[in-house]
Design goal:
This protein is mostly helical. It folds into three domains: 4-53, no CATH class; 58-114, Homeodomain-like (Arc Repressor Mutant, subunit A, Orthogonal Bundle); 118-246, Tetracycline Repressor, domain 2 (Orthogonal Bundle), CATH 1.10.357.10. It is 62% helix and 2% strand. Strands 1-2 form a two-stranded antiparallel ribbon. Helix 3 (89-96) packs across helix 4 and helix 7 runs antiparallel to helix 11. It is globular and about 50 Å long. 30% of the residues are buried.
């Protein structure tokens, strides 16, 4: 794991703002680990993480990433203001300062922009799964990859919260998000079958396991949104994996 040095002044309980020494902090799954920080320090943390993750990218790659984020931000803001039916792809492009043609270079629909669908990120997740140790149990491999990579690290947590609130306010968007999760399910199940040397078309275990895992991911995002981001997203996601690993055993009833 790589570690980033956080400049003096980053707040972290129980120390107060402005009084902390230099510290080491792991960027993996960082977007979900901001819950205990003030807004200024969340931004500083995010800047460090994004710098580390995108070191070595070309100017063209950086511009594409920034344009994609700008379009998603514009789509979120417009739908929050006007509602989904009143927003068009052309309006999103205008708000982001790009042409409609540029919009469609990145997204096929306005729903895609709101969900933040990124085929390259899907490919990154699948590639990370394929690189896990071959002998690692499937659930553990999925946990290692998704706890780190499912929470987007190049989006400010407050922006992600606002996007999730918009998604929850529009049933059509929730349905569309579920379809995109299904796309990821299919490629993850295929990669999981390949790891075990099984024909993906005849591997119900992989399909069922990935479906359960992605359901855990969806509920983790919604639970995080329900806490207004106060609890780290990666911690919630890890807890969901604990439940899956326990075989979905019902929790013990409280005696109090």
């Amino acid at each position: 794991m790589e570690w980033a040095v956080i400049p003096d002044g980053t707040c972290c309980p129980p120390l107060s703002r402005g009084g902390c020494p230099l510290r080491l902090w792991p960027p993996a799954g960082a977007a979900g680990a901001f819950g205990h920080l003030c807004s200024d320090c969340k931004l500083r943390m995010l800047q460090v993480v994004v710098t580390l993750e995108h070191e070595g990218e070309s100017v063209r790659e950086r511009k594409k990433r920034e344009t994609r984020l700008a379009l998603t931000r514009a789509a979120t803001a417009l739908v929050a203001e006007r509602g989904l039916p009143a927003v068009t792809a052309e309006q999103i492009a205008m708000r982001a300062g790009v042409s409609p043609r540029t919009f469609f270079n990145y997204f096929t629909t306005k729903e895609d922009a709101l969900v933040g669908h990124d085929p390259q990120r899907v490919a990154q997740i699948v590639d990370a799964l394929r690189r896990r140790p071959p002998a690692e149990p499937p659930l553990e491999a999925l946990r290692a990859v998704l706890v780190e990579l499912l929470p987007p690290s190049d989006v400010d947590p407050s922006e992600l919260l606002e996007r999730l609130r918009v998604l929850r306010s529009e049933p059509q968007l929730l349905a569309y998000q579920a379809l995109r999760f299904e796309d990821l399910e299919r490629v993850l199940a295929h990669a999981l079958s390949e790891r075990r040397g099984i024909d993906p078309d005849n591997d119900p275990h992989a399909a069922l396991l990935v479906a359960c895992v992605m359901a855990a991911g969806r509920t983790a995002f919604m639970a995080w949104c329900g806490t207004d981001g106060r609890e780290p997203l990666d911690r919630i996601l890890a807890r969901q994996f604990d439940v899956l690993a326990a075989g979905l055993a019902a929790p013990e009833r409280s005696t109090t």
